[in-house]
Amino acid sequence: MKLFFISDIHGSAYYLAKAIERFQEEKADYIIILGDHLYHGARNPLPAEYNPKKVIEILNSFADRIIAVRGNCDCEVDEMLLNFPIMATYSTILYDNRRLFLTHGHIYNEKNVPKLKDGDVFIFGHTHIPQLEKKENLYIINPGSITLPKDNNPHTYGILENSIFRVKDLEGNIYKEINF
After folding, report:
1. Which domain holds residue 161?
2. What is the pLDDT along the chain (180 residues), one digit of tens a residue?
3. Radius of gyration of the chain (CA)
4. In 11-160, where does DSSP find H-type helix?
5. Best exposed site among 40, 96, 121, 142 by fewest CB in 10 Å?
């Protein structure tokens, strides 16, 4: 199974369209969205082609292949317009005999990691900064942001296949990777 991870779309139809192109080229099975789907957020600038209605249209066309969690900029009204649930604080996926704990990062984060088994994977967004590391027998992963990267990082997404998590830029180039 090949999983495609994005976070922090923040209403940008431009960057979502680029990410969807990569999803299709990667031939991934599912899109995992780690929150902040439609709204740009009061602290953020308006992103390129800020168009939540277009983002809704694009995401709804892939609704049967999306697993999503709530970001700090997401609300119940957003879920009413999307054809898939987004209001869960976290989700889990069993992958290759380990748990992938998926969350946005504003509630559960590196300072508040839920109880996980050695070898499990904690995957979050929110910081807009790619991160791949092993810490105290857990894997800590952040695919970065497709729309508003921080700290001079490129616009990125994540791919998980064969127990290798790769963060790639929106041109498909490997930026970072970790094997578990």
Report:
1. 3-140+152-179
2. 999 999 999 999 999 999 999 999 999 999 999 999 999 888 888 888 999 999 999 999 999 999 999 999 999 999 999 999 999 999 999 999 999 999 999 999 999 999 999 999 999 999 999 999 999 999 999 999 999 999 999 999 999 999 999 999 999 999 999 999
3. 15
4. 13-26, 52-60, 76-81
5. 96
